[in-house]
Each structure stands twice: as structure tokens, then as C-alpha cells.
Amino acid sequence: MILILIIGLISLLYALYEYRNVQETHVFKESFNIEKTFGLRIVFISDIQYDYLGTFFNKKLIIKVVNKINELQPDLVIFGGDYIHHKGKSVFKYLNNIEAKKIGILGNHDYFDLDSVIQGCQEANIRLLINESITLHNITFIGLDDSRMGSPHLPHIDDGDFNVLLVHDPDDFERLSNKRHFDMTLSGHLHGGQITLFGKYAPILPSRYKQKYRYGLVKNNNSIVYVTSGLGGFVFGLPIRFFAKPEIVIIDL
Predict the structure, then answer these.
(1) Using an 8 Å Cβ cutoff, are 86 and 116 in contact?
(2) Can you give the pTM of this predicted structure?
(3) Which residues contact 153 (CB under 8 A, 6 or more apart)?
């Protein structure tokens, strides 16, 4: 019994540590089978969720994340949705300090306080793409609304463009890539499982495709998605992760 308690305590302490240990993950264009070079550095983050029911907000972590992003000197920062966990605009005053062009999409948690999120994005100079596309650096970025809480649909897409799809839930990638090709897709939502069995299996994962899209590069037909583990989230009210390290994703195109 004592041994079980010790193991439990050590696991909890590690999970609290891992939550705060934000990694920098480099994903190379060759991983998407991209041959063309754009001379563009993208930083991708998702699922910040550093607030809990409006009573707790982790200021130290968001400052750490923003400073890391600025040190990377990206040309473009992309947000994959879920800026908030439940409520509030606290996060956006820090995101406003990111010194790069910013675009983003909505996640399911953002609908808990949608007006504040939309206003916060505007104040932080984040261009929200809700079933819209925007062309930057000769790349067309297509952002879809969240499929659980919103009404996603693809805008008009020119197949001759270099198309990057942004979806919060990777399950949407499966559906869309069954119909057409995307040069690159970025997604989040699943937090790498948040709590996993040593990074191999997540007991609780809200995806109809089970473990397929839990984390990392996944191919479907001829399209490839990168599913980030994201940054925050809570488990039973605790800011913990277990072998699902939070990350800032760097992509040099």
C-alpha cells in the first residue's frame, strides 16, 4: 500500500512538472512531402487553456510561451483553437505581445465564451479564419469553424494553390482528406492524450478514430496532418500531463 502511494505521488509530481515543461518541436517540410521552399518560419500552438473556470490563470506559463515564440522570430504564428478552457480574456493581453503576424481558428472550448474570444482575438491582432481562407507568402491558409460547436464548411479552394488546412479537431481532417488533397494540415484538440500510458496509449481520447490522431504526423490518402499535443488543459481540475508533453511547433517552409 505504501509503495502504491509513493508511486502515485511521484507520478503526480512528474505530471505537474511535465505540464510546465514546454518543448520546442521542429517539424520539417519534407515530413509533409513538400519540395517547394517558401522561406517562411511558422510557429503553431494550440489548446492554450491556461484558465480554469475563471478562477485560475497561469500567467507565468503564458509569459514563458510568448517569450519563447518571440525568440524563435517566426514570420507567422498560427493558433489552432481553444485559447480558453472555460471563460475569460486574460490570455489575449499576453498573445498581443507576440511580435509576428497571427492567424487562428476556433476550438470547441472557445464557444463557452465566444464573444470574449472573438473580441480578444481582435485586440491581440489575431486574424480569425472561420470558414475562410487567406493568402500569405504565396500560401493559402484555410481555417474551418469547430465541428463540435460551430458549423464548418470549406470555402472555395483553388487546387492550383499551395493549400494549408487548419482544423481544430483532427477527425475533420479524415473526412475532408477523403474528398480532396491538402498540401499540409495542422490540428490539435486531443492534447496528445493529456494522460497516457508512457506516450503509447491514451485511455481517454475524444476521437472516433481511436488512437490514430492522438499525436504527431498522420497520413490519410495523400494528405498529411500534424496533430500537436497543445499547451494546457486540466484533468480533474489539476494542471497535469503524463507523457503528453506540451509543445510549441516550428515549421520552416
Answers:
(1) no
(2) 0.96
(3) 131, 144, 145
| Amino acid code (one letter) for 28 | F
Domain boundaries, the chain: 2-252
Task: Kindly tell me if the per-residue pLDDT of 53 is higher than 80.
Answer: no
- Fold (CATH) for 2-252: Purple Acid Phosphatase; chain A, domain 2 (3.60.21)
- Locate cell 510557429: which residue? 43
CA-based nearest residue to 130, from 113, 154, 158, 109: 154
For the ranges 52-56, 60-64, 84-88, the one whose mean pLDDT is highest: 60-64
Question: Mean pLDDT throughout 153-178?
Answer: 94
Rg over alpha carbons for the chain, rounded to the nearest Å, is 18
**Residues 219, 144, 251, 192: is their CA dihedral positive or negative?**
negative
Q: Where are the beta strands (DSSP E) in 15-155?
A: 23-28, 41-45, 51-52, 56-57, 76-79, 101-104, 126-128, 132-136, 139-143
Q: Looking at the chain, how many residues does it have? A: 253
DSSP element (H, E) containing 199? none
What is the per-residue pLDDT for 54? 62
30, with CB counted inside 10 A (0-12, 13-18, 19+), is exposed
Q: Which of 79, 230, 108 is nearest to 166 (CA)?
A: 79
User: Taking Cα atoms as reference points, which of 85, 119, 116 lies closest to residue 189?
Assistant: 85
